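Retro notes
What went well: the complex prediction finally ran end to end.
Inputs used:
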Amino acid sequence: MNTRFDMMLPRRQTILGGVALAAGAAAPAHAQLTIDMTRPSFEPVPIAIVDFKGDKVGADIAGVIRNDLQNSGLFRSIAPSAFIQQNMDPNAPPRFPDWRSVGAAGVVVGQVTQSGGNIKVDFRLWDVVVGQQATGLSFTSQPDKWRRLAHIIADAIYKRVTGEEGYFDTRIAYVAETGPLGNRVKRIAIMDQDGFNTRYITDGKTIALTPRFSPTLQEIVYMAYGESNAPPRVYLQNVESSRRELLGNFPGMSFAPRFSPDGTKVVMSISADGNTDIYEMDLRGRALRRLTSGPAIDTSPSFSSDGTQIVFNSDRGGTQQLYVMSASGGGERRISFGEGRYATPVWSPRGDFIAFTKISAGSFGIGVMRADGSGERMLASGFLVEGPTWAPNGRVLAFFRQQPNSGGRAGSVTLHQIDITGRFERQMATQTDASDPAWSPLIPQ
Amino acid sequence: MRMIKALAAIAAMIFIAACSDDQQAAAPATTSVTPGSVADFRQNVGDRVFFDTDQSTIREDGRQTLNRQAEWLKKYGNYQITVEGHCDERGTREYNLALGERRANAARQYLVAQGIPAARVKTISFGKERPDPVGSDEAAWARNRRAVSALQ
């Protein structure tokens, strides 16, 4: 089991006024990954998160960290009831033999102090195997933002152990679904990645679908139906103020919007006389540029992480397949060649993979392929799985699963996350049935 | 044994009859609704046509329904119509929005070709968002691949 923590000097990190804590012992760094997510198999890292001291919110913070790490599939959170050492001094080294005997590879201790109307949280991650501090950081924030502090600490631990950026300090936008299928209410909701702090940002009077975050998380784009049979259109909405504006008033339907990586443009599909093509709107001058033409359905466009290309799906070859073109249009080439129909391509924020929905032999799957179409791998399958979205580290995906309808009643619709190897899938917590997840970038600090 | 076979054959015929009734729920039938009313249109003309999987071509049964719709709309010129395009749940949400638009447009163009003024006929796609009936089998999906002419 490769679960050793290696020594590293703590790095300065300025998160909500965060600073690095001095390490207890400054041994030279010994660079070695402690968990390699790309290996064909590994054991989750056993980790002990001790309730943070100094304030009653300390136990809540530890609980959020445990939940985040456990839910990643890469860690196994050791139950506090198994801990041997009690009443630890958060600034002193733990009794390593006690933690080795409960099977922990790492132990996290921390302390909360009040500081001029804010809370200050210090934590240390101790490498139990080598008996050294692995990292230690300090963060300050408003007291009601304690959940974010916990997610930021979980991200720091995840990064220290896996070498990958974390994804816990993020949000998920999705379509909250309630009521009977024939008259389903579908409104846009945003929640923290772990299911907390849900708020609804459309009122549900008309169907709203396919929310997507801007790179700063300040805005989302989505499609919503109008009142009295007006065609559905794309809206841009400020998340904080809820102020929304129509993106272009076209005679037909506009849908499938997505931001460019720099946030200055939105690509979308527009239908006219039954035909659907892809357009780009520049948000600065609202100039519209047509990117595809012809009688095929061209939809679900998604920018490459560097903004130079767009992947989309089209039935121009007879069935729905994936194509890549230049971000200014042209140079279109097909990249999917497997059996079945391919849909909803989404370029990874790291640029290495494209995730997609595949429909073949009566079943649905979520898969990934390289940007040139090679190396296709299926990660999840089912009666209906759809709509992959990338966590900002490009190593975890979310999507939705719908169960079959039965006896006139709707099957459940739920959000799921899965790692890029397909090893670890779990259902994500939502208040209602949920579809169309959109994973945000890391929340700016 | 022969009796069982005969019963099975009768049962099969009843089943087929039931299916075909179901498929032709929109076929003309004499009822006592007011001529020229929305109920008249729905019950005696048929407000919807059906499509094959991933297709937007109007089938022969659909042409007959649309011919009746065109005749009726010429007779009752006070109505505007919106053709709603729908899909079964066996496609992705965004693609189905586009496919529903294609179906609605195919029905609209057929009506216009029969002499209904283009300005009287609008279209809207609901993709797979408004299933009718709700179900996850072939029979339900066949009924969901539809274009519905809604009167205003």
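What we learned: The first strand of chain B starts at residue 48 and ends at 50.
What to try next: split runs per interface for comparison.
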